[in-house]
Amino acid sequence: MISIKAISKWYGEFHVLKECSTTVSKGEVVVVCGPSGSGKSTLIKCVNGLEAFQQGEILIDGVSVGARGTNLSKLRSRVGMVFQHFELFPHLTVIQNLTIAQCKVLRRGNREATEKGQRLLDVVGLAAHAEKFPAQLSGGQQQRVAIARALAMDPIAMLFDEPTSALDPEMIKEVLDVMVKLAQEGMTMMVVTHEMGFAREVANRVIFMDQGQIVEDRPKADFFKSPDTDRAQQFLSKILSHGVQT
Amino acid sequence: MYQFDWSSIPGALPYLWQGMLRTLQITGVAVVVGIVLGTLIAVARLSKSSILSNLAALYVSGFRSVPLVMVLLWFYLLVPQIISSLFGQPGLDIRLLSAFVAFALFEASYYAEIIRAGIQSVSSGQVSAGLALGMTSGQTMRLIVLPQAFRRMIPLLLTQAIILFQDTSLVYVIGLAEFFGVAYNTGNRDGTLVELLLFAGIVYFVICFAASMIVRSLQKKLVS
Ligand SMILES: Nc1ncnc2c1ncn2[C@@H]1O[C@H](COP(=O)(O)OP(=O)(O)OP(=O)(O)O)[C@@H](O)[C@H]1O
Ligand SMILES: [Mg+2]
Questions:
Q1: What share of chain B in percent tops pLDDT 70?
Q2: Minimal Cβ distance to B132: which of A76, A88, A91
Q3: Which of residues 54-83 of B touch A (CB under 8 A)?
């Protein structure tokens, strides 16, 4: 579904991504972790073309992200993305947040879009908040709306960039629960997170990045039993001992 | 002690009112056209195309580097020529038309800078969110960025409109009688210039003061 082939990216002189390769098959959940500044966000933004890369190739469902002829908007409308800071549109109500792209991008009628939006709000447990503005919701609620907004486009895959790291501890679970359910329903997911509890529960594979490189890319069980590299070992013991996981 | 003579004011009120309407007309046209044009210039200034962005920068710094009076006179000398060569003799007062054009184009350069700052105040994460949903960059600008930018800019846009309202008095150089011009002419004719200009000053003050009070309460509302 998503195949990343030896991509490299530079910010000026700075080599952010070094020949990163991996694939995410249909229905697979891949967790990406690694220290701050290792390039996790950059990698995931390359996948839907929010960041350009200079070398290599990314294919989504056979379509090349970096190629000149690609209709990036159309491609992005099929790949959902959830951000660390939610990025709900503050000038629109919750339900409008869910319908605007359906109407303007997918050209759905207002009624159809609203029905779809309501249904998804129900799925994330926020049906009663449709007419509120994002600022009236808690962080956890906002992130669940953001997930629903992405799902409203009927994506073939979902990208998450540290979806819980801006949340207070008591709200992390409500967001992870939604993500776990999504994973169990067979959604293809690429998730940057340090929530190892989530990785243990639903991930198929874990990718560990350091200094722009994919250092490890292994099935979950192997990764948690004994990481190949010292760096991953150290990283894992650090975040586990800090009790970041749920 | 100077003896004030207010007797000519009541008789002049209808003319002063006409003058005020003209002032508001020029202000209104310049604000609306200035904001629309200013938005286009601001978007061009921030566009990836270096040609567009340089043209917009030239427009802005060009208009901001010359006095408004001069722009007004230039357009007064230019616009009638252009209009009559295009449409023959127009029905609309040529001085009024050149005032509209000059103020609108001039104000657009100021509004463009305000709006550019407003656009830049919207976080890049909002743009990413729009793009990630499959919107084009034009849709993201129109549906996501500009509505938020304008909401934040309302106080600044209004403040600029208040300045413009006062600046319209400059149209006396092309012989157009707006509020200030009417007050000046009447006072000159009746020998009560001091009284009429005092009166006009009070009217300007009251209107602008009230407007800036509104701006301030809006600002408070937007902050909270
Ligand atoms: N626009 C940019 N220009 C220059 N350097 C950048 C830019 N964006 C990111 N970087 C650098 O690229 C590196 C990777 O950034 P990235 O955001 O991908 O890291 P990350 O793994 O997501 O880290 P974090 O866990 O802190 O989110 C960092 O060193 C960062 O400073
Ligand atoms: Mg990051």
A1: 96
A2: A76
A3: none
